[in-house]
Structures are given as structure tokens and as C-alpha cells.
Amino acid sequence: MTRVARLALLASCLLAPQVSGCGKTAPPLSESRPPLQAPERMTVEASSGLDELKAYKQEAHRAMGLSDAQKAQLREAMLKRLKAFDLEGIKADYAQLGTLVAAPTFDADAARALVTKMEGRWRDLAPTLADAVAEGHAMLSDEQRKKAIEVLGQSQARLAPIMRKLRFEGFAAIAKDVTLTSEQNTGLHALMKKDREADDARLAAMIQAETKYYQDQDKQALAASFAEAMKVHAGQEAIAWAATLDPQQRQKVVENSKQYAARLLQAMGEMMKAL
User: Fold this and answer.
1) Rounded CA gap, 261 and 30, in Å?
2) Would you tell me the crossing angle of helices 108-123 and 87-102 to the nearest 10 degrees?
3) Phi, psi of 33 (to 5 degrees)
């Protein structure tokens, strides 16, 4: 399974705790974005991050010279791997987290403990992801494997902006119709920066691990590298920020999150059909 296919597969889960605001026009994401932009102005570009991820996937498949039969194989492999995910457990964790966040009194300690549990659940997926890489590798010809390494060499520069856009879309909708104080807004932007840095580091580590696998086919080392990479996140910082909100703000954030999850899962379903 290609890296892009796995990113599509993980997007519906890894982005689930965030929310997506779509359909408004804004400047491209960059480091020059005003650091204290008001929530109602945190709009996103008309083309969504998932649209760009799909376009990049198609481009990568062309660069690797995949046949229609190979694409079909990858699609079937991806669906098989999806079944290995404990989706019900993941949904239950997020539902419990939403209940904690929306409660009149926020139990931050319980929320932090739950996030730690959820982080472990993601790390446990590392062997499944390694299996997916190995299965995808086995489907390719020697020439296609060489091309895959070339694609991997370019993927950090190509995918990082797309993943940043996906994350920003999530934060934009988290803040939709939530009136924040200046301090809360500052905290939100600090959280966004931490999340972006963690996401960039995780992406780089996973690309490096996959490139190494194409050179040595050491699946055990690949799984270990994936597990280590997935330790990098901003989950605890998100809980700390949530603790600064009042009950009404937290309830709105949870409401936004649920609406986003429904939209994202629908969009992911449509995307899966095109893989």
C-alpha cells in the first residue's frame, strides 16, 4: 500500500478529534498568518485538504506507473487493513472524551488519562501499518519500487503542506461560533503551532522509515519506527487548552467536533471509492 493510500486511510481517524470548516476563501496557509487571528476569521481555502490529498495520490500513482489492476489491489488491501482497526473502540474513546469536555465541570485529569490511552491505541496500529507497507512493496515491480523511492523522496515537501491544511481546517471549525478571550485565542494559536510541528515531525519520521524499508525490507524495524513516530503529537496540549474554556465554550467545541466527524467520514467514504 502506498504512503498516500495509508494517509487517506488514517485521515478519517487521526483527524477525528478535530473539526473541519469548508467552503470559504482565505489566503494560503503560511508562517505569515496573523498569530492572533480571531476565530471567525480562521477561514479555509475553497479546495479542501482531502481534495489535495486525493490529487496527490493520483499523481503519485501515475509517477510510479501503477496499472489499473494494481490500483484495485491497493484498494482491496486498504479496505482489509481498515478492518484491522478497532474503529468501535476508537469511536468509544472519542465519545468518552467528548462527554468529559462537555461536562459542566471539566475533569482534566480524566481527560489526560484518556488521551494517553488513545495515544497507546494509535501506537498499537504500527504493526498493521508496517504490514501495509510490506504488502504494497510486494505488489510492485523492481522498476516501480525505484520510482516509489523517488516519490518518497519528494513526499515530505508535497505532503506536509496538505497535512497542515487538513489540520488547519480542523482548528478553524473547532473555533467556529466560539467567542474566545484574548488569552484563549493566544492559547489556541500556540496549540496550532505545536500541533503543526508535531505533525511535520511525525510525517518526516514515517517517510524516513518507509524509505529505509524499501532498502532493507526489515518489517520489524519499520513497525518499531512507526510506533516511535506516532508518539509525537499535541494531545496533552489540547487538553490543557480545553481546560481554559468555560462550560458553554466547551460544549460548542464538542458540538462542532461531532458535526465535523460526520462531514469528514462522508468525504472519506467518497474518497475511498476513488482509490
Assistant:
1) 25
2) 160
3) -60, 135
